[in-house]
Specification:
Elements: H1 5-37, E1 44-45, H2 52-57, E2 62-68, E3 71-79, E4 82-92, E5 95-102, H3 103-111, E6 117-126, H4 128-137, E7 153-159, H5 165-194, H6 200-203, H7 211-224, E8 226-230, E9 233-236, E10 239-243, E11 248-252, E12 258-267, E13 274-283, E14 289-294, H8 297-308, H9 315-321, E15 329-333
Parallel strand pairs: 1-2, 5-7, 12-15
Antiparallel strand pairs: 2-6, 3-4, 4-5, 6-7, 8-9, 9-10, 10-11, 12-13, 13-14
Helix pairs in contact: 1-5
Length: about 350
């Protein structure tokens, strides 16, 4: 990379443009990682249904439970006219526990042989109204006395329908997508560092020939044939190069047949007031043109001078090319005639 000035500009622009993208990606990844660690997006193993209250109070509301020997309560969960799931109960250690299963799992449990077990993800929900209503239907069946009613059942429903499956899935997808995007960005930076001709700012040079060769030619001229430099503006024997962060404009001087300079007055629509600037236009008979705006008149005159090659030793060549200093047209355009 040593002495490859144009290549260095390509790499510099790549890094400057990649920094904000990397910051956004890493910030998003950190945010998603934090959200995935929150209790609302995590699923905990719960081996004993009697621990439902403990898990609920500690915020661990998403649980994975191994269920077996559930009995259909005779009640279904409806949304409008459509059945979304069914309530089941389990009577264990003198206490009844209520489960709400979706239609698919309900059918599997109803048709399962005795002793069949399934691992199901639930959200623990406190629902005294539902549990009290279902319990009332089974007071006599389960031989529960009225005086022990409060201790005979759990007010916490293990609800499969409310388990945030899509939310957890989306967080997982975003997490791995962001990781992949960061990996791709880093890989692209590494490849582009060694092969800068693949960069978008370099690929536009294919209009001058093979990109790799043009980049090499620009490196050589900026190192050995640089005629003029002012900040981001470079004039070599064959090229005008204007470097910005978002792009690098390159003009092949042999394509330029006409050049003009215009003084313009621009309005500042945000803060008001007017500002004098200068526009340099390069074009040819095929109407290919390039425009650049510079606030300093001396700078634009210097650029025009070196584009013309106004060296005393090259006057004959300038006359043939039609780019003598006298060919530069100067016009003053007032703000009434020019709209930014």
């Amino acid at each position: 990379m040593k002495n490859k000035r144009f290549t260095q500009m390509l790499i510099r622009n790549l890094i400057l443009m990649a920094i904000p993208m990397a910051v956004i990606l890493f910030a998003a990844l950190i945010t998603i990682s934090h959200m995935r660690k929150m209790d609302d997006a995590r699923t905990y193993d719960m081996d004993d249904v009697n621990l439902a209250e403990e898990y609920y109070l500690s915020g661990r509301v998403n649980v994975l439970v191994r269920i077996s020997d559930l009995k259909y309560s005779g009640f279904d969960y409806k949304s409008g006219e459509k059945i979304k799931g069914s309530y089941f109960y389990l009577y264990r250690s003198g206490k009844m526990h209520i489960f709400l299963l979706d239609n698919d799992m309900s059918d599997r449990v109803k048709q399962a042989a005795e002793g069949s077990a399934y691992s199901v993800k639930f959200r623990i929900v406190r629902d005294e109204l539902t549990t009290d209503h279902i319990l009332g239907e089974y007071m006599e069946t389960l031989e529960l006395g009225t005086e022990s009613r409060e201790k005979a059942y759990s007010v916490y429903v293990l609800d499969q329908l409310r388990y945030p499956r899509m939310w957890i899935l989306m967080l997982d997808v975003f997490y791995y997508v962001l990781q992949g995007a960061i990996a791709v960005l880093l890989l692209y930076l590494i490849i582009a560092f060694y092969r800068p001709q693949i960069l978008k700012q370099a690929r536009v040079l294919k209009r001058f020939g093979k990109v790799k060769s043009v980049v090499a030619d620009l490196d050589y001229e900026m190192r050995n044939e640089l005629l003029y430099q002012s900040d981001n503006i470079f004039v070599t024997e064959s090229y005008l190069i204007v470097a910005y962060v978002s792009r690098i404009d390159v003009v092949y001087l042999d394509d330029v047949e006409y050049m003009s300079k215009h003084e313009e007055i621009k309005k500042n629509h945000l803060f008001g007031g007017k500002k004098k600037t200068y526009r340099l236009t390069l074009s040819n008979v095929e109407k290919m043109y390039f425009e650049m705006f510079i606030d300093d008149e001396q700078t634009i005159d210097d650029v025009a001078y070196y584009i013309q090659g106004a060296d005393e030793d090259d006057e004959d060549e300038e006359a043939e090319s039609g780019l003598a200093e006298g060919d530069i047209n100067e016009e003053k355009i007032d703000d009434d005639d020019y709209d930014e």
